[in-house]
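Dear U.,

For the methods section draft, I wanted the exact inputs and outputs in one place so we can describe them consistently. I've listed the two proteins in the order they'll appear in the manuscript figures. Please don't edit the token lines directly; just add comments below if something needs changing.

First protein:
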Amino acid sequence: MMCAWELEKAIRREGQASIAAFIAEPIVAAAGGGLTPPPEYFPIIREICDRYDVLMIMDEVITGFGRTGKNFGIDHWGVTPDIICTGKGMSSGYSPLGAAIAHDRIYQEFQKSSKGFVHGYTYGGNPLSCAVGIAVLEYIEKNELIRKVEKLSTHFFNKGEELAGLDIVGEVRGKGFFMGLEFVKDRTTNKPFAPEMNVSKKIADIAFSKGLVTGAGKGGIDGILGEHIVLAPPFICTKSELDEIIDIMRESIVEFQNSL
């Protein structure tokens, strides 16, 4: 929670007129391995942004379009941002597609401007990408995949808690079908591994050899220290497939532990 109140300190320190926006991922993805703030965090951020007339921008490139079991990740905190930047799940990777979604109060400022809003670029409105995006979103809606993710996320994380008991797993975190695993050298102190050990990459390589694709990352603490892996299963996964993901992950971590 200190991080939330740090925003107000930064605004007052730098001067309100010099701060345009606060930008964050609802759940820190690649950089933080599923780092998930407490329930009070984003409501406090929203209140501070409103009080100092600072835009609240959410990076939903990874967490948008159902990944966390909600339409957008920020929906878990019950606040409305001013702008959402999104992509990835919007077209499921079949064709590059991204978007900026602006609140009416932002859009109206451009409407009032006599200069207009010049935002036409070479690949803007690409017909192939837009057609793919429509097809993907229609499939998600028709098959109620976001509701499915929300429903199965409890099972996924209950199963994932089995990993929390392993010697080098410091935390299991995230929401929906987005799970982060933090690896630590000492669970008592949460002391991280030395970066040159490449712990997350080695575990990811073991998992890959067993048929599981993961997202390995490091530097989540200060850009250097911190090892993590993220698991982001397809929305169409069944309970048994989610169980298989966790089972392979456990086998991979144990195999790495035994090599130390």
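Second protein (the one for the lower panel):
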Amino acid sequence: MRQYFPGRSMGRYLCPVPEHNVIYVKNPKAGCSTILVWLDRLHTGDNHHEFGNVHREDRLPRVREVGRATIVRMLSGGAYRFSFVRHPVRRFESVYWDKMVYALKWRKNVPAALGLDLSPDTTVPFEQFLSIVEEQDPVNEMDPHWRPQHVNLMHPLVTYDHVGRLEDFAAELEYIREAAGLPQVPLEVRNTSRRTETNSVYDGRPDLVRRVERLYATDFELYGY
């Protein structure tokens, strides 16, 4: 499993809830924040806690607390395993607007993530962003926000009881809840788009769509998009 997260803490992406015998594997830009709040409520029974950054503040058990042997058992079929995916073309556009345009604090990481010599207030054009990502190694160089989703989900090492689609999020999460035998908790949708524009980066550029489709061809094949 470590080979899928070089230079990163694997525990940041594995979210076990042992008392409910479920484990969620994060796939950034596919409902992560909403799912973490949902899991936190399942784990704590507290439906009213206010989070600033749920990725740093959730109260879920950590991998080191649960133990690696238990995590391996859970991911190997000893627990209900789930994650979510998103249409690759829309996910890539979402990460561009979110991380390359709007998130000024995150853009401080752009030089390291893309290998560019830029000031934090510089906006990278979408086509340049795509060109750089096309040259990155998916495992060793891509940031998880724009990595192929099958890499984030450790395909083919881990198989899942269910991989939901963000496009039908509420119904998919309810399916997971029932299949895993989980109690009802309120669902709080987090991190909706900050975009105010109605235009798309793909408008008038079908060539860019085709390039993104090639980049994430395996995701299209595995997840039926």
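Candidate sentences for the figure legend, describing the second protein: The chain has a mean pLDDT of 91. The chain has one domain: 2-223.

Thanks,
Y.
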